[in-house]
Amino acid sequence: MWVKVLYHAVFKHLNPLAGLRVAGPWGPNAITRLRPDLIHKFSDLFETEEENLKVIPSYLFHCNAHSPTGEAAFHTLMKGFAWAKNPMLPRLADLDTNIPLTALFGADSWITAISEEQFCQVRPNGIYTKSRLIEDAGHHVYANPVVFNMQVLRACKFSDNMNRDHS
Q: Residue 60 in contact with residue 31, Cβ under 8 Å?
């Protein structure tokens, strides 16, 4: 019984970034202390470590300190603690089979990557259905910009070529 009460009182309405918003001007420092892995991830973008320690925490804080509309939308779309109310995979059967699909997943993500075989079971006649893993990336697949950009460009180029062939 107490688990149900805790779930409905806390977890069902939990906004994970609420603590960051409450931290106010100390938010960037909190990010630096709590998520040094994120700061380190982007260190090669800066000439000095000092610049990295100033820019990245501030950027992450300001991206997440505003009104939690994304978190509210996530709660609307989820069932239970973190499962989708209406998962995308089964709905792909309704997608026109002429539309190419490339799904990108971080190789180090906590989210389960869907294999090409699983996509093809749902879209057996899809002309182009691919699943790609982005190495050295977690949930945020764009954190490895070189590989991420290469995979996005590859998918776009295929789609462009396919559209030219069908025109």
A: yes
Domain ranges of the chain: 2-79, 87-165
Query: Under 8 Å CB-to-CB from 123, ≥6 apart: which residues?
Result: 92, 93, 95, 97, 101, 129
The Cα angle at residue 112 between residues 84 and 141, in degrees rounded to 5: 95
- Give the integer Cα–Cα distance in Å for 53 and 29: 9
**C-alpha pair distances (Å), 59 with each of 17, 29, 65, 117, 141:** 14, 12, 10, 38, 18
Please say if the pLDDT value at position 167 is more than 60: no
Q: Say what the pTM is.
A: 0.67
What is the pLDDT at residue 112? 86
